[in-house]
């Protein structure tokens, strides 16, 4: 009998259920979090709680899903269409997402959606409770969809160790103040013992919100909440470095990368990969690429922008609008500048397997990341990890969390079309030796601060804080 179990909780489970031809399919996620936490939740006794990504049609489907997921140590929280609409689309993605990405005008405040967000957070808490956690256990809650959950778990289990990690930015308190329910949200998060972010600025913004809005006493990064200590800290997330570097070196990927290069006739190959999202600066990137073709006509026919946009949240109106806007911008550039032998942009609205992504990373001369705001951004780290043996240049937004680590990338302000254009030009012209040197520095960082390291130091710190708290209580 183990004396401690770990419960991981996130909106989505690391396995997605899909109904195809009247059958349920269980599809494991390739995501960074799933990989990083794989070694934790797969251990006997540990579990991961979350939404399985579909709405069962009947009790039988629910029972099959529950049983199949149980074999993988996964516990589903089933949500109805109405719950998803209010909690996920309405509140998480139409209030929290835009506000936390500094897009105040995109927020849609609706008290019914707020009520549903509360109810669904309570539903998650009930599922956690059904797992009979003891005060010796530890719980790690992920992201903005579950901001109320730390407090809900704390109410039931006063001594349990709770970590909360926010993967998206935390805005300055005056921006956060726009949300009518801001106090409830931070009180919810403060149920945790350790509240963590990817960057120092995000942690400072969170601390400011706690002191300015709730008037909580603070000492360095430690808040005093009803006699408890809550720490806000910074743990920049890494990727599975080995996976990407090994894939990049494998013969099939090398072969596929060469095919891609041949297909594009060895033109300078600029790669961008994102989820469909207005925080990613996709329109600005297209404008900069057009500006490159306008200002430097000699580059026409010599470059290709390969742009992969992964479908996401297409039930949310802002995302549908963005998709149309991208279609128009790509169509405009290709029709104005394209000729028979050359299309400036190869645009895909699709999701590709990791092997194809790896081949694209290997093939790409430049990887272009222009997020207007991004908690971290893992694409740029995946590109770096794929470049141990081929050259390449990373152009990176200074407003993505990763910019704090990847100092050798060409950094740009993503709101400046001129800066992106000039960075692209410099990247295309960069001597091979400089490319190698700069990439080598980035590789070292991405290799060292990989996903396993991130998981390890987070848990170590959570245990340390728990020990500290016990010592304080004993005094
Ligand atoms: C971001 C968020 C995650 C979210 C992911 C995909 O990375 O930080 O919490 O899961 O986007 O978005 P989705 O809405 O499809 O889960």
UniProtKB/TrEMBL annotation:
It catalyses: ADP-alpha-D-glucose + sn-glycerol 3-phosphate = 2-O-(alpha-D-glucopyranosyl)-sn-glycerol 3-phosphate + ADP + H(+). It comes from the Bacteria. One of its GO terms (molecular function) is alpha,alpha-trehalose-phosphate synthase (UDP-forming) activity. Pathway: Glycan metabolism; glucosylglycerol biosynthesis. GO terms for cellular component: cytosol. Keywords: Glycosyltransferase, Transferase. Its EC number is 2.4.1.213. GO terms for biological process: trehalose biosynthetic process. Belongs to the glycosyltransferase 20 family. Involved in salt tolerance by producing GG-phosphate from ADP-glucose and glycerol-3-phosphate (G3P), an intermediate in the synthesis of the osmolyte glucosylglycerol (GG). This is Glucosylglycerol-phosphate synthase. It comes from Sphingobacterium paludis. The lineage of its organism: Bacteria, Pseudomonadati, Bacteroidota, Sphingobacteriia, Sphingobacteriales.
